[in-house]
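User: Let's play a game. I give you a shape written as C-alpha cells, and you guess the letters that built it. Ready? Here's round one.
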C-alpha cells in the first residue's frame, strides 16, 4: 500500500520468512520553467510479480526526496 493514500489492488504477500520481491517504477514529476508542477509523479508497483499499484499519482510539493519501504515483523 501507499499508506494513507492507496490500498494495494491485491494482497500477494508471502508467508513470514519467505522472500518478497518488489519492482517499482517511479515516473518523476514534471515542472515548468518557473518550477510549477505540470505533471505529478506516478508510481507503479509489482509485488511478487503481481501488479498492486497502477500509475498512482503521488501528489506533493516536493521537488526531491526519498521513497521508504516498510517491513512488518511478527
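Assistant: Ready! My guess for every position:
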Amino acid at each position: 500500500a501507499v499508506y494513507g493514500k492507496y490500498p494495494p489492488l491485491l494482497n500477494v504477500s508471502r508467508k513470514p520468512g519467505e522472500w518478497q520481491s518488489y519492482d517499482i517504477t517511479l515516473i518523476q514529476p514534471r515542472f515548468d520553467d518557473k518550477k510549477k508542477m505540470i505533471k505529478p509523479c506516478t508510481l507503479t508497483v509489482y509485488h511478487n510479480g503481481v501488479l498492486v499499484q497502477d500509475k498512482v499519482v503521488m501528489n506533493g510539493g516536493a521537488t526531491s526526496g526519498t521513497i521508504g519501504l516498510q517491513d512488518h515483523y511478527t
